[in-house]
Design brief:
The chain has 187 residues and is α+β, with helices and mostly antiparallel strands. It is 26% helix and 22% strand. The chain is built from five helices and eight strands, in the order βββββββααααβα. Strands 1, 2, 3, 4, 5, 6, 7 and 8 form an eight-stranded mixed sheet that branches. The protein is globular. The N and C termini lie far apart (51 Å).
């Protein structure tokens, strides 16, 4: 029997697997409305059934720690020079977004995914009424946070490039383990 949870429909699309006719998304800088660099694009969360992107996976980077979070696609635009992705949200507001933990996210119940979306709205649009995302229905097609930007409509990706979100976690854990082992050997 098919998994009835909405989160089971969501897949990860690596930024390197997106046609770069609009911009080269792999590692593209993400810049806040205040002009501050926020991080870089790691990938996208796509609703495989609807073939629509819901979130941009942003890696905030850092020397010793890295934090990934999900930026709703409706808050992003490719810069005119195509060298960055601009968001209408400040860096400070984005710091309040829930952290993207792929292992947990892929296992979310519908209730947990609704709570995640509410926290996202509170962080990026504190003046917006929560009633729209406080329902038990899914509104990705109608919520402004997830409106499909013009630049995404022209992008093509091969559906077979979509991976389970859990596999992203497995890959990042392996990379972390390798970095830890390499760090121990260099001492």
């Amino acid at each position: 029997m098919a998994d009835p949870r909405y989160a089971s429909r969501l897949r990860y699309l690596d930024a390197a697997d997106v046609d770069d006719a609009v911009a080269s998304f792999d590692g593209l800088d993400v810049v806040g409305s205040d002009g501050e660099r926020i991080g870089e694009i790691d990938g996208f969360v796509v609703d495989a059934g609807a073939r629509r992107v819901n979130h941009i996976v942003v890696d905030s980077g850092g020397w010793f720690t890295s934090r990934r979070f999900l930026l709703p696609i409706g808050h992003a635009a490719v810069a005119p020079d195509r060298k960055s992705l601009r968001t209408d949200v400040t860096r400070d507001a984005l710091r309040r977004l829930p952290e993207f933990e792929a292992d947990r996210f892929s296992e979310f119940t519908d209730e947990e995914l609704h709570a995640f979306e509410r926290h996202t709205v509170i962080a990026c649009c504190p003046d917006e009424p929560l009633e729209a995302v406080s329902t038990t229905r899914w509104g990705y097609e109608s919520w402004g946070h997830y409106r499909q930007p013009e630049w995404w409509r022209t992008i093509h990706y091969a559906p077979e490039r979509l991976r389970s979100i859990a596999s992203v976690f497995a890959a990042s854990c392996s990379a972390d383990r390798l970095a830890t082992v390499a760090g121990r050997r260099s001492h």
